[in-house]
Description:
Elements: H1 2-13, H2 20-27, H3 32-42, E1 55-62, H4 69-79, E2 83-88, H5 94-100, E3 110-114, H6 130-146, E4 154-158, H7 164-168, H8 173-196, E5 200-203, H9 205-209, H10 219-225, H11 231-248, E6 255-258, H12 269-272, H13 285-300, E7 304-310, H14 313-322, E8 335-339, H15 343-354, E9 361-365, H16 368-377, E10 382-385, H17 393-398, H18 410-413, H19 415-429, H20 435-442, E11 444-450, H21 456-465, E12 469-470, H22 478-485, E13 490-499, E14 502-514, E15 518-526, H23 535-549, E16 554-558, H24 571-574, E17 578-579, E18 586-590, E19 602-606
Parallel strand pairs: 1-2, 1-3, 3-4, 4-5, 6-7, 6-9, 7-8, 9-10, 11-19, 15-16
Antiparallel strand pairs: 11-13, 12-15, 13-14, 14-15, 16-18, 17-18
Helix pairs in contact: 1-3, 2-4, 3-4, 3-11, 4-11, 6-8
Amino acid sequence: MDALLQELRTAVAERRMPPPRTRLALLETADPALARRAGRLLAALPPPGADDAPVVPVTVLATATIGPYEQILRAQLVAAGVLPELTVGEHGSLDRDLATGAFARSSPRFVSALMDESFFLPRDWSAAGVTALEEHVRARLAALTRHLPTGGPTLILHTVPMPAELRDGLVSRQARTQVTKLWYELNAALLALAEQHAAVEVVDLAGLLAEEPYAARDDRMHRYGDLPYTDGALLVLAREVRRVVQAGLGLSRKVLALDLDGTLWGGVLGEAGAGGVHLGGLYPGNCYSAFQRAVLRLREQGVILVLASKNDAEPVEEALSGHPEMLLRADAFAARAVNWSSKAENLSRVADALGLPPSAFVFVDDTDVERAEVADRFPEIGVVSAAGDPAHLVRRLLRTGWFDAPSLTEADLRRADLYRARAERAEFSDGFEAAADYLRALKIEVEIAPVTPYTVARAAQLAARTNQFNLTGVRFGEAETAELAARPDHLVATVTVSDRFGSDGVVGALWAERGARAWRVLNLVLSCRVLGRGIETAIAAWLSERAAESGARTLIGRYVPTKRNRVAAAFWTQAGFTRDEDGDGSFVLDLTTGTVDLPGWITTSERSGHE
């Protein structure tokens, strides 16, 4: 504990975010006291601009005293690489602030609501009148639902543990069953709010506490200071809120790199052979089978799998293809680095081949030396230990929420195959001396279409996750994207790319304001996996043609530099735009003299948003 806190003190004193390794240790802590002390230290973090960390306004509203929740939440958000600007509402202000929208004055990106049973139960309730109690709880739920925001910040609610006083205060087993059923219905209704409201997320605090070593409540502190939850319960909630924020900001990882010996199976392949490794059957083989099932499920949801193992390729191929209990066959992996080279170097080569930064990777290995080497070379890679009892493998991989996403789109479900096709394109390119010949041979097709109810989530996801080719950094959420798309003076469109190797799916999105004399691009984002093919220029060509057809005289774009979008710095000038001398980062194309030229190796098409 002392070493971690000292590292945090040093970072704060030097006016910088804690390094990735320190943040990872803070992310994984199960000690509420450590999280609380860390949060107090981190309140003195540097002002915006001192680091490349996203600065995120977060408001906390509560039905009771929040206790150390502010400190614990800050520690979790900083651990995820976020610099939070925390605002705390007045004591017990949740009901009023939701009804009046007062919390919006601080312009938060996220609002975390800390609720206890007092929000739903009357102070004095009769054990002889269970029906009246049911009516009151349902009325309070209806009141909460009426006041939920329809747009703006993301409101993060949670399920509420049933208080023992309520459950055990009923001597009739029939009444106890009736009220317990009511409480489950209440929590189910709370969870359903996330499905019914685009601006609402709900985490299952009540369910999570059933598997955690923390009591939900300390009766003495509840009576003494109106503290509804223990520090441990607050840490559980803060973790889940951090996961929502992490996913909403596009900070989730895309690639899971896996060792083999001691990770995907037990034992050493080079010593035991393919038939001698532990996989399936009884312990410990069943632990590795469970781990492979969990990994396979991640792949089904779009996580890209990579092998990074110090082994000879031939026995690995034999094990992957021939072992009867093997769930992850060779075709499950987008890339395989099976050799005796440094794992850090192998991961670097794989990242280049996939066109993804190391910060998109999570690496799992059972060897301390290998994990340390990767962490030293690439501190931004998430490192998970597979050492120790393999029964804990699945929990270690999943508990941090590395791969969380607000929702899954078609592109997510196809991502693993898309990146494998990317590797095939890289191999195909070796046969061409000139880049233009290779691009023409790809037969690239770009389709641009207005967003639909089916693609609005993907557009918002691209805004949240895209950092390299993100021209303005404006991250339009799902509700805001849908709202802009419905306005006749705006255009929101998605970009789909395909070539001879198949479709990349929806890889880009643009938001534009359509004025009578000028069109203004609010943002344009494009997945890094299609950069280098001229797709961005094709989008600019299509957009300039549509603007000119509408009668507009100018098309205006902006570039707002960040430390991660330098690849897009010259985009507007290369497309033929002229920098505006006002100095606000604007670039102007005079549509009266022409539009952007479409690259000769690309064909474009457009589709009605209703098709």
